[in-house]
Structure formats: structure tokens, C-alpha cells
Amino acid sequence: MIECIREADVLEAVVFDRLASVRDHLAACATCADLAEVATALRADREAACRDAPLPSAGLVWWRATIRQRLDAARIAERPISVAHGVAASSVVALACALAGVAWRSVRWSDGMNDVVASLSAGRFEGSSAFPSILQHALPLVGGLAVCLLLAPLALYFVLSRD
Predict the structure, then answer these.
(1) Does the residue 59 lie in any domain?
(2) Which residue range(s) make up the domain with 129?
């Protein structure tokens, strides 16, 4: 809760070490004087901590940079392998969908063959009735391929998401 409208100015003056610009206000406002005192103490503490902070040795910095460079090179080398894994996974899913479609079609094929044999034996084979039968048998295969096409980018995203 702000008690004085000049608190932001006082805080800015402390941060940028320009307390002389707000000395008159600090003498008149107890809230801002307390703020300036606390902020000055915190600034001094921060400066002391920065002065006393130990710098790592040059060898340690070099070693960490070398390790980081090796890890980056390993990630770059893994990218083609990750892509290959994604392609292989989507291919397995596509193959599984295709096999499921073939298995479903082979089960339904016997029913379709019974219909074709019955229409041939009755002597009334029509070409226009073949299209819905073909469409009915191809629909699961097309659906499986569509699912594979939708899942392949998703699989690649998950494989490459850690890069």
C-alpha cells in the first residue's frame, strides 16, 4: 500500500544513487525516509555480496564450456536418429492399421463374395452395385491411413520436443 506518491521516485533515486535529488522530500516525509534507509541498506548489502563473490577459476570455466559443447554436439548428432525413430514409429502404426484393415476386409470379404455369387447366379450383376461394396470394404483402410497421417506429425513432435 503506497502512503506517499513520491515513494517510486525515492526508490529510483536510491537505486541509481541520486539521493541528493530527493533530500528535501526525505526530510519532510517519514515514510519515504524509512524507505530510503531500508533500500540503501539493501543496496549496500548487494554490492558487498557482489564484491565478495568468488570467481570460478579459468580451468573450471573452460571445462564447463567444453562439457556444454560436447552435450550440444551430442544433441545435434541425435536429431537424425530421433527423426528416424519417429518415422519408424509412425510406419509401425500405419502397418498395424493396414493389417487391421486387411483382417477386417478378409472377414467381411466372405460376406461380400456371397453377395456377388448370389447376384451372378441370379444373372443380374450390375456394375453400379459394385461401387458401394468396394467403398464399404475400403473405408476402414482409408480411415486407418487417415489416422496414421494424423498421428505421424504428433509422434514426430513428441520425439523432437526435447530439442
Answers:
(1) no
(2) 79-160
Give per-residue pLDDT as tens, 5-52.
899 899 999 999 888 889 999 999 999 999 999 999 999 999 999 888
- Please report, as a single letter, which amino acid is at residue 28: A
Residues 106 and 156 in one domain: yes
In the numeric block, the cell 459394385 is attached to: 130
- Answering whether pTM is above 0.70, one says no
pLDDT: which is higher, 160 or 36? 36
With respect to residue 47, please indicate whether it lies within any of the assigned structural domains. yes
Same domain, 38 and 92: no
Q: What is the pLDDT of residues 129-144, one digit of tens each?
A: 555 666 666 677 777 7
Cβ–Cβ under 8 Å, residues 107 and 60:
no
Contact indicator for 149, 76 with CB cutoff of 8 Å:
no
